[in-house]
Amino acid sequence: MQEEFDYYEVLQISRDATGAEIKKAYRKLALKYHPDHNPDDPDAEEMFKRINEAYAVLSDDEKRALYDRYGKAGLEGQSGGFSHTTMDDIMDIFNSMFGGNPFGTRSGRSETAGRYARDIEVELQLSFPEAVFGTTKRFDIRYKYACESCHGEGGKSETCDYCGGHGQVVMRQGFVQFAQSCPKCHGEGRRIVKKCSDCHGKGYLEEREEIEIEIPAGVDTGNRLRVQGKGNRLVNGRRGDLYVHFIVEEDEHFIRHGNDLYVEVPVFFTQAILGEEITIPSLEGELTLSLPQGTQDKAQFIFENEGVPDVHTGRKGRLIAQVKIVYPKKLDGEQKELLRQLQESFGLESRPHQSKFESTFKRIKEWFAHKSKS
């Protein structure tokens, strides 16, 4: 069952609010709950739908009168969709706030963006050292520019007679009104009646360009670099921006977590027992790791300022060396005998399980003795 809600409460206005007050409240709330400002937030999305539904009714004097007198039930006999005035009103508000309409596509043709996005996004793969130390990269991009023959229009066009140039048609299901892209003009707001022979109706052509960028030290997978003025060229001659998304390859030895590096250090069991100084790799070369006597498996040793530099501040993270104790896979006779002698030299200490379970074994014997008597 659909949850009931009051249109005045949704827009946070009184029941005697004027048309100007309704529009002001709608503008404020639509901006607050717009999906572009609240990505992946289902509650904001639901509130946004309610705001649009409330405004569609309260901004129409006839529908508002029916709603005031009979509630939502009084609107059931009304034909679906927004009135032409209301639809234009909503488009005007959203064009002023977002540069588009409330449903995420163009209202008619944009004079500056044309038939393609102004920005370009590309992925760039980096090796581990390139990302850690920074580098210079050269690569090719293909950018779009408006077709001069048709001025980016794609050919001879006319206003779509199905949506009236809005690019959207609004449908109604019960009390809910929703918009979808116009099936006739596919959201453009205009229909091409004769395609341009140069761009074949696309409105743009493409050109290759070689780009060189400086990549700062410390970038990681998911980081993005903006290169101004290297995007698509708009109808007015200005170019958008290029956004480079980085994908960093993994290293054979180092594991990166933020600005920290982890390295697994294999240590022979005798080294762990006796303690020893060993050499381990770092980004700058080598470091000395002093193992204390009796080092345990998975023990960690931290070296400050030996990690990856922060891409914004340059401050370095840590290098964390984690021990992995290695045991011999095979023993010859002499080695076995030496280990037996070593074990015996520790006496009872070499058999910790005996002292740990001595009292347990005694209790178990008493249990069985008591059971046999009964």
Q: Keywords for this structure?
A:
374 residues; alpha+beta; Helix Hairpins; Chaperone, DNAj Protein, Chain A; HSP40/DNAj peptide-binding domain; 4 domains; 4-stranded mixed sheet; 3-stranded mixed sheet; 9 helices; 29% helix
Largest β sheet strand count, sense and barrel closure? 4 strands, mixed
Strand order of the largest sheet: 10-11-15-14
Structural class: alpha+beta
Order of helices and strands: HHHHHEHEEEEEEEEEEHEEEEHH
By CATH, the superfamily of the largest domain comes out as Heat shock protein DnaJ, cysteine-rich domain
SS strand fraction: 25-35%
Q: Number of helical segments?
A: 9
What do we call the CATH topology of the largest domain?
A: Chaperone, DNAj Protein, Chain A
Layout: helices, strands, pairs:
Layout: H1 7-11, H2 19-33, H3 42-58, H4 61-70, H5 84-98, E1 120-126, H6 128-133, E2 135-146, E3 155-159, E4 168-173, E5 176-181, E6 190-195, E7 204-215, E8 224-227, E9 242-248, E10 254-257, E11 260-268, H7 269-274, E12 276-282, E13 285-291, E14 300-303, E15 319-326, H8 333-345, H9 352-373
Parallel strand pairs: 1-9, 11-15
Antiparallel strand pairs: 2-7, 3-6, 4-5, 8-9, 10-11, 12-13, 14-15
Structure write-up:
It is a single chain. The strands form six sheets. The protein has a four-stranded mixed β-sheet with strand order 10-11-15-14. The chain has helices at 7-11, 19-33, 42-58, 61-70, 84-98, 128-133, 269-274, 333-345, 352-373, and strands at residues 120-126, 135-146, 155-159, 168-173, 176-181, 190-195, 204-215, 224-227, 242-248, 254-257, 260-268, 276-282, 285-291, 300-303, 319-326. The chain has nine helices and 15 strands. It starts with 6 loop residues before the first helix and ends with a helix. Helix 2 (19-33) packs antiparallel against helix 3 (42-58). The longest helix has 22 residues, at 352-373.
